[in-house]
């Protein structure tokens, strides 16, 4: 009876969902006159990834990346370019002290319309790196900056809508496996003692 109870307690404890509370967020950004993309923000890696990107029907003529360029990875950073920890309970608001900058500079992204050579700045969501490389962080989630619209020109985009949907994603902690192995080892010892 002792072994059965110990096994039940150990199994219940070890198989209980030991998780962190990291989350991902589905994001849809729509500028009727420009970029329309969907992506995912991951609070575990503090990244944002654009998965799809199309051009709105408006007259500005923003460039769009080729499908081979997607997904595009962005990192959460502060205005000082230090890493920023995206909260696990993020509400979709990008404050005035952080945002997401693309991993690649714009000239390293393959664009459907041609090669961009205007500057070496990064794309930004909620934060911008202007042509001279300086950072402006008082932008917010409605702005995507600066998307090429010619080989040397780029322009900011203002969203008509931004939707952010939280998708909780439990992340198993590695300790759970060790706890299970330890519990099974203890049970084997208890069985061995009971027989002797």
TrEMBL record:
Membrane-spanning intervals of the chain: 171-190
UniProt xrefs under InterPro entries: VPLPA-CTERM (IPR022472)
Keywords: Membrane, Signal, Transmembrane, Transmembrane helix
Signal peptide span: 1-22
Protein name according to UniProt: VPLPA-CTERM sorting domain-containing protein
Top-level taxonomy: Bacteria, Pseudomonadati, Pseudomonadota, Alphaproteobacteria, Rhodobacterales
């Amino acid at each position: 009876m002792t072994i059965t109870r110990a096994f039940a307690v150990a199994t219940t404890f070890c198989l209980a969902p030991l998780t962190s509370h990291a989350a991902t967020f589905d994001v849809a950004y729509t500028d009727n006159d420009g970029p329309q993309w969907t992506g995912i923000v991951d609070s575990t890696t503090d990244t944002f990834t654009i998965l799809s990107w199309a051009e709105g029907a408006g007259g500005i003529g923003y460039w769009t990346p080729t499908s081979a360029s997607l997904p595009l990875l962005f990192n959460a950073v502060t205005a000082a370019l230090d890493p920023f920890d995206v909260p696990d309970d993020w509400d979709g608001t990008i404050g005035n002290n952080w945002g997401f900058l693309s991993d690649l500079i714009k000239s390293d992204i393959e664009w459907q319309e041609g090669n961009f050579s205007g500057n070496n700045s990064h794309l930004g969501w909620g934060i911008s790196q202007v042509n001279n490389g300086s950072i402006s962080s008082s932008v917010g989630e409605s702005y995507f900056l600066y998307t090429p619209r010619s080989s040397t020109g780029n322009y900011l985009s203002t969203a008509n809508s931004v939707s952010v949907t939280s998708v909780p994603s439990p992340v198993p902690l590695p300790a759970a496996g060790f706890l299970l192995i330890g519990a099974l080892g203890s049970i084997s010892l208890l069985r061995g003692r009971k027989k002797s």
